[in-house]
Design brief:
A hairpin with a 4-residue loop joins strand 2 and strand 3. The protein has helices spanning 29-45, 50-70, 116-123; strands spanning 20-26, 75-82, 87-94, 126-131, 138-145. Helix content is 32%, strand content 25%. It is built from three helices and five strands, in the order βααββαββ. It has 146 residues and is of the alpha+beta class. Strands 1-2-3-5-4 form a five-stranded antiparallel beta sheet, covered by helices on one side. Helix 1 (29-45) packs antiparallel against helix 2 and helix 2 runs antiparallel to helix 3.
């Protein structure tokens, strides 16, 4: 499984609160729940279709969980917003400066976890990993068509 990279991934606009929502949290498991609730509330305020909102919350949850479990970061920066009128983008930035690649693994039939990126691959129109211009760590992103 490899990221479906677009030729020039658009980054979220950090300065436009009408089209983006950012949340910085400690890199703890409990923060994933906080991110889901905050992002879900913003999507509701934007009056997006329920199915799109549910997919976006699930994707953000998976990306944030991976950042908590698989990086050395103490904090996460979660963002969601529009990069066009029809493209919703989710981003999770960590502060992991190790330069190590993010682990990709195949879950076995008895494993309780390890399927997050498979969900991302199935739900997102495109996704990938870049170096974060905001934190210097990793920025894992996914796009959904609104």
């Amino acid at each position: 499984m490899s990221p479906h990279l677009t030729s020039s991934p658009q980054l979220l606009d950090v300065a436009n609160p009408d089209r983006t929502h950012w949340l910085e949290l400690p890199a703890h498991r409990s923060s994933v729940r906080v991110a889901r609730r905050s992002i879900g509330a913003r999507l509701t305020a934007w009056r997006l279709p329920a199915a799109l909102s549910e997919d976006a919350v699930l994707l953000l949850s998976e990306l944030a969980t991976n950042a908590v479990r698989h990086t050395l970061s103490a904090r996460l920066l979660c963002g969601i917003g529009f990069v066009s009128d029809v493209c919703l983008r989710l981003e999770v930035h960590d502060h992991d400066y190790s330069g190590s690649e993010l682990p990709l693994r195949e879950a076995g039939p008895e494993d309780e976890g390890g399927r997050g990126l498979l969900l991302v691959e199935q739900l997102a129109d495109a996704w990938g990993v870049d170096r974060s211009r905001l934190t210097g760590g990793n920025a894992v992103w996914a796009n959904l068509t609104a």
